[in-house]
Design goal:
This protein has 6 helices and 6 strands; from the N terminus they run H-H-E-H-H-E-H-E-E-E-E-H. The radius of gyration is 18 Å and the shape is globular. The protein has a 6-stranded antiparallel beta sheet with strand order 1-2-6-5-4-3. About 45% of the residues lie in helices and about 30% in strands. The chain has about 160 residues and is α+β, with helices and mostly antiparallel strands.
């Protein structure tokens, strides 16, 4: 009985640390993936591993390493929902001091604005990248969570843009 109590106490002590190591944007994406007027895509860990194996088979070890480190990618796109509400929720998420997102890049071109926010976890090697693109053409929020650095993500963006040109 004493062992069970000690085990339960240890689990209760470590739960906050485990929760902090998780993505803080997860509730945001969960809410919008279930809301009418928004489209969502979730690439989970298993898909990332399959894509990593395919990249390795094609000889792209750098991309394979990046994909292997990513836990998931979540995307929410506005179809006909409330853009102002979505932008307010992203603003609340990225400016909350508890979450410690840092603006790492922003650009604006032809009425479209893009912002990249980074959150590095102090309790694990995982990072969280949040990209917001909004304007007249489209409004999209992308969340990448896992073990990566910005240079690797830049190569992923380059590979993605080559695929869809």
């Amino acid at each position: 009985m004493k062992r069970i109590l000690v085990f339960l106490l240890a689990v209760m002590v470590f739960i906050p640390y485990l929760a902090r190591a998780q993505s803080v944007a997860w509730p945001f994406f969960d809410r919008y993936s279930k809301t009418e007027g928004y489209a969502s895509v979730q690439l989970e860990r298993k898909m990332m591993r399959m894509m990593s194996r395919q990249a390795a088979e094609k000889g792209d070890e750098q991309l394979a390493k990046l994909l292997n480190g990513i836990q998931y990618i979540r995307i929410v796109a506005l179809k006909e929902g409330d853009r102002a509400r979505l932008l307010e929720d992203v603003e609340a998420l990225t400016t909350n001091p508890l979450y410690d997102f840092q603006l790492v890049m922003s650009e604006s071109e032809s009425g479209q604005a893009t912002r990249f926010y980074l959150r590095e976890s102090p309790h694990s090697f995982n990072s969280e990248l949040l990209m917001l693109t909004y304007g007249e053409k489209e409004t999209v929020v992308v969340n990448i969570y896992g073990e990566f650095d910005l240079q690797q993500v830049a190569s992923l963006v380059d590979a993605w843009s080559l695929l869809y040109q």
